[in-house]
Amino acid sequence: MKSYADTDLSQLIEVHEYFYAQNDEIAAHSCIWGDFNFSLNGILDYEIEGIHHLSPPNYGLWIPAHTAHACIAREIQPTHYICIHLHPVLCNYFPTTTKAVEISPFLRHLIKEILRQKPATTAVEYEHLLQVLLDQLRTAPAYEHYLPQTQHRVLKPILQQLSNPQCFAKSLQQILHKFQFTERHLLRLSQQELQLSLAEWRNRAKILYAIDQLHAGSTVKKLAYDLGYQHSSSFIEFFKRYTGQTPAQLRE
């Protein structure tokens, strides 16, 4: 593996930010550099080599070099979009397939600091920031898909119910009761097909719905009720656990 030790990281890493209005679209393309893309305030809707990917604010997408991808902004509010280009020599340290990468609060603030300081930072200071950024990206937890899908004849109709906003107020047990399978059997299937429990999959579906509704103007109180929470504080705690932000912070 070729080393980057003797090369300035500023020549190997580019950090850019963009703002996209609703329905702005990035046409399908591929690059010789790898891309790490994520949104600071909304959901990115991607098609990567024919596969649909969603990326909420607490998850980014690692897209390897030479991988065709397209993106569309779905949010009503402007989407604050971050793109980190990695030189091919750095791609050797990352997966060869697309991954959903978990974004820690520290990584989020680090990228904001890099963008803020870039014009005024000395070369040495900027190199240090980029080295920390590279280390954070390399060690961040990565998954095949944020909200994986399946064509499995048993799981597919169950997932349709679990992701239906009209069913969010029902408990998981209430939804599964109508399907003639034991919870143990369904848990085994979900781990096998989705690499997630059905409870975790449903929570992620709720988060995607909540982000979309917040940007559409829904109140926290109404969202809490729609998702089955008796108190807004419980919904806020749930939302922050998954996104690292409160609903109010996401709006800001």
TrEMBL record:
SMART domains: HTH_ARAC. It comes from the Bacteria. Pfam families: HTH_18 (PF12833). GO terms for molecular function: DNA-binding transcription factor activity; sequence-specific DNA binding. Keywords: DNA-binding, Transcription, Transcription regulation. PANTHER family: ARAC-FAMILY REGULATORY PROTEIN (PTHR11019:SF190), HTH-TYPE TRANSCRIPTIONAL REGULATOR NIMR (PTHR11019). This is HTH araC/xylS-type domain-containing protein. It comes from Acinetobacter tandoii DSM 14970 = CIP 107469. The lineage of its organism: Bacteria, Pseudomonadati, Pseudomonadota, Gammaproteobacteria, Moraxellales.
